[in-house]
Amino acid sequence: MAHAASLQEDLMAPSPERAPGAGVYNEKLGMWVFLGSEVMFFTALIGSYLIIRIGHPEAWTGHPRTTPLNIPVTAVNTFLLICSSVTMVKAFAAAQQDDQAWLRRWLVATVLIGASFVGVQIYEYIHLVEKGFVPSEGLFGTTFYTMTGFHGFHVTIGVLCMIFVTVKAFQGKYTAADHRGVEVIGLYWHFVDLVWIVLFTIVYLI
């Protein structure tokens, strides 16, 4: 009887709370669901681009040699975005180790690199418009600005969110026990980096 009573007490006792940041918590699950919808969105964009390109190859005749796209500059910009993924990983590792100084440094680096990517893309757009390559410039112009523009918008949103996370980091809001904000924004940031690698390959190089 005593054993049965003890077992009943164990079953009725509240289970220990999961430490913040461990497993799949609500914010992380929400981000995964959101990224799932983003995967479908960009898959539709890229799929439409490929279908149009295959169906109307004349619109891409001579690309990339005869179009004003500055591939070397965009390649450097792509390298910058990849580097920002590395700094984001470093920031997350610092948060796990409760290294506040390096967490802040790596987050600031990620913000600066991400903002630089957006700045270079704006410079590229200005250069292309001056060369007469505008969204209304046939199928290539329309699809180019649609895909890169939507991606640039996502990077801009990511930079703004990263600034918010960085400010909280400077306020000491993230610890080894609870660094959910750093992990969640990291998931988003790695996603936009991966999408850009795909876009750079199919739009600029092929």
Explain how this protein is built.
The protein is built from 6 helices and no strands. Mean pLDDT is about 85; it is low at about 1-20. By secondary structure, it is an all-alpha fold.
In angstroms, what separates the terminal alpha carbons? Answer: 76 Å
How many extended strands? 0
Helical coverage, percent range: over 70%
* Major beta sheet summary: none
Structural class: mainly alpha
Round the Cα radius of gyration to an integer and report it: 23 Å
Our estimate of the beta-strand percent is under 5%
Short characterization:
With 206 residues, the protein is mainly α. The chain has helices spanning 2-12, 26-55, 71-96, 100-130, 138-170, 180-205.
Layout of helices and strands, plus pairs?
Elements (H helix, E strand, L loop, with lengths): L1 H11 L13 H30 L15 H26 L3 H31 L7 H33 L9 H26 L1
Helix pairs in contact: 2-5, 2-6, 3-4, 3-6, 4-5, 5-6
Distinctive features:
206 residues, disordered N terminus, 76% helix, mainly alpha
